[in-house]
Amino acid sequence: MRIAARDDYDELHGTFRWLVPERFNIAQACCERWAGNARRTAIVVDHGDGRIERVGYRRLHEQANRLANALAALGVRRGDRIAVVLPQRPETAVAHMAIYRLGAVAMPLSILFGPDALRFRLDDSATVVAIVDAEYLDNLRAALGESVRHVVVVPASGERPALRADEHDWSELLARARERFVGADTLATDPAVLIYTSGTTGAPKGALIPHRALIGNLSGFVASQNWYPRPRDVFWSPADWAWTGGLMDALLPALYFGHPIVAQRGRFSPERAFELLGRHRVTNTFLFPTALKMMMKHAPEPRSRHRLALRAIMSAGEAVGETLFDWCRDALGVTVNEMFGQTEVNYVVGNSAQRWPARPGSIGRAYPGHRVAILDDDGRELPPGQLGEIAVNRFDRHGDPDPVFFLGYWGNEAATRAKFSGDWCRTGDLATADPDGYLWYGGRADDMFKAAGYRIGPSEIESCLVRHPAVANAAVVPKPDAERGNLVKAFVVLAPGHAASPALVEQLQQHVRGKLAPYEYPKEIEFIAELPMTTTGKVQRRVLREREQAAGERQ
Q1: pLDDT of 171-188, one tens digit each?
Q2: How is domain 448-554 classified at the architecture level of CATH?
Q3: How far is CA 375 from the centre of its chain?
Q4: How far apart are CA 435 and CA 457, in angstroms?
Q5: In the chain, where are the structural domains located?
Q6: What confidence score (pLDDT) does residue 83 get?
Q7: What does 144-199 look like in DSSP terms, one character per residue?
Q8: Per-residue pLDDT averaged across 70-77, rounded?
Q9: Which residues 6+ apart lie within 8 Å of 19 measured at CB?
Q10: CB 133 within 8 A of CB 87
């Protein structure tokens, strides 16, 4: 799919109106209303060993009802927090649907979390029940405090663990429960999900998401997926269903539209990604820039090796950059639709190659229904071309409330207040806007730094480095320097077939120097096996920055 020649943006954005019912429940919208069709597939499970399992919406609904009854019998009440520590598997969707039907609050937690990360979130939220994959039960046990009264254990491959008195086998629990359940009559403003921020810049905060936020996501989702759905659309993303990117940008929207989503376990690999895309005739996907970089390096010309059916790619979490943009367009035949959002206000800015032209390097325009501006430190709107903070208004251009907004940070009113300047929700991300409303990402506000008096944004330098064939990934941070205040340092992960050497350092420096401003090239380059990443696929520059600061203090 080539860059669109048409530009419907002004008409789409100008005529769009939110239609948010007073009462709305995610489980009813994503599962119950499709359950009447026994042949409609909800989840396609690829076990990775040749086995393919198809789970229909009817089965999903029946199991969600049984689990809702079982949880109610364990004492779960409306508003209670339920932890979901599960990978991509049908039971994850069942757990979410059951929790929403109860009127309780789902708290998805990554299976990659260690005991300390789990304990903080369980204790902070006063979670009453945890649902966990048996493979990660020991990890959860090490994290349990006083609030969790029951643990529901979902079977994994291999032997079933011996359970304690407060632990329940998923299969046995559902077998004993009734299949009929009358779902809670929830308001669209009632809380549905509690997701803790990834902690790239500090301690995680629990963002409380209402049922209506799913509706708020949909204009961006539909646009970024090139007017999803079409009759044979199949969705897949490696994004963890425990995070906003996997839950709100993949699983729930696909189920909302009654289409299948592919589920798979295990670590991401580019070869596995291409296999899944081809085997399941995936038409729509969400891939982090990090994943796309790995796929680009693994298969520069993928269509010569893989039979692909892709018609839309959304990417978010880091800047895509021109290199990846060009590769997706030329090698995959799809113009990547970059998107910007965060847990608190998700899916608010992006591209839609089918309905308005994408500009390489831009994260796009405000999606229909969202009012976005660039603010200065005092909360004033900046004119085009000036760097400031991306902010989203509580009200759209018609004065109607934007349903995408979170309700606030769990137990932290001060942090909630600090997030806003009047009706503007500040994202902490920097950008400039051009006269046509396209945003150009400038990095996290706390990732910016000064070197020799110049303000440096890491993303542009990182994108430039990745264009070099020897570079698989890169992260740029300040290194304390007595003369310059800071100097630009790059951590580089090498592509297969390349070895670190002083000659390569000089080559990479010249590569950047020839394409960016002279003050932007990395004065130091350190080769590293892998970059520190969050479980959502974002580079943790903070970890590298703190490492350099600590090293400077020791000198």
Answers
A1: 999 999 999 999 999 999
A2: 2-Layer Sandwich (3.30)
A3: 24
A4: 22
A5: 448-554
A6: 98
A7: --SS--EEEEE--SSPPPPP-TTEEEHHHHHHHS-S-------BTTSEEEEEE---
A8: 98
A9: none
A10: yes
